[in-house]
Amino acid sequence: MRYFIYFAYNGTNYNGWQIQPNGIAVQEVFTNALQTFLRESVDVIAAGRTDSGVHAKQMVAHFDTTRDDLQSDEVVRRLNSILPRDIAVDKIIKVQPNAHARFDAISRTYEYHVYQSKNVFKEKLAVRLFNPLDFDLMNIAASKLLDYTDFTSFSKLHTDVKTNNCIVKYAKWEQRNDEWVFTIEADRFLRNMVRSIVGTLFDVGAQKINVDDFCEIIEAKDRCKAGVSVPAHGLYLVKVEYPAEIFLMTH
User: Fold this and answer.
1) Residue 159 confidence (pLDDT)
2) Alpha carbon distance 47, 246 (integer Å)
3) How far is it, in rounded angstroms, from Cα 251 to Cα 248?
4) Would you place residue 161 in the very low, low, confident or very high pLDDT band (cuts 50, 70, 90)?
5) What is the 3-state secondary structure (H, E, C) of the chain?
6) How far is CA 211 from its chain centroid?
7) Count of alpha carbons within 13 Å of 85, Cβ hemisphere only?
8) Rg value, the chain, Cα
């Protein structure tokens, strides 16, 4: 039986999602907890790889098991009792045998959170800005992302992807109480893409570059032209969407 499992994590204490030799990863902790609960070996394949320090309000992964009874609140409760406090399962759903958490995703949404006044409760969960930014100007620049498909300028160099093309469906800064939140939705994202877009938008907001310069940076297809990659702890994966037909039941 193949299942999709929906969960959240605070990435502060982890070296990203993917298991690696130089630190503890969410995948390792999550897989161990699932195996402890199921009492069998499983591979957990996620919708994507978040970098060290990045958070997820909603991550989705798939796994196969001989169990046919995992769609219950009691299973979620018991699994959460095994997981550490910074990882929480939301739901488990049966899917088609060939459904794939990464390759079947039709859109992903990220948020980047910033704040301006000193706040001791946000230090590891959002990024503090020390200088004022023009968010209206940043939104004009952000809207230009929808006009392009090749985002080489915002990609980490030397990655193993076959194409740097992405379809951005939404990109906007909005004020939420004492925070500004940048929301971006696309069919797929490149490594480091959101953080380098935000860093370049910061340059627009600080009026170091203008909107035309921002467009020229995209058109250059050169990572060296773009702004710095902003800190990981302000970034959240917030939603992954799939076609309805891969689910065996409504969710």
Assistant:
1) 65
2) 14
3) 9
4) confident
5) CEEEEEEEECHHHCCCCCCECCECCHHHHHHHHHHHHHCCCCCCEECCCCCCCCEEEEEEEEEECCCCCCCCHHHHHHHHHHCCCCEEEEEEEEECCCCCCCCCCCEEEEEEEEECCCCCCCCCCCEECCCCCCHHHHHHHHHHHHHCCECHHHCCCCCCCCCCECCEEEEEEEEECCEEEEEEEECCCCCCHHHHHHHHHHHHHCCCCCHHHHHHHHHHCCHHHCCCCCCHHHEEEEEEECCHHHECCCC
6) 26
7) 2
8) 19
Q: Across-strand partners of 87?
A: 9
Residues in Cβ contact with 6 at an 8 Å cutoff, skipping those fewer than 6 apart? 58, 59, 60, 89, 90, 91, 92, 93
Known catalytic residues are 51
Q: What domains appear along the chain, each with residue ranges and CATH number?
A: 2-103 (3.30.70.580), 107-238 (3.30.70.660)
Query: Which residues make Cβ contacts (< 8 Å) with residue 193, sequence separation at least 6?
Result: 151, 154, 155, 166
Joined tokens for residue 5 = 């499992």
- The answer to whether residue 251 scores a pLDDT higher than 70 is no
Read off the pLDDT band of 249 (50, 70, 90): confident
Q: b or e along 86-100 (b: 16 or more beta carbons within 10 Å of the residue's beta carbon)?
A: ebebebbbbbeeebb
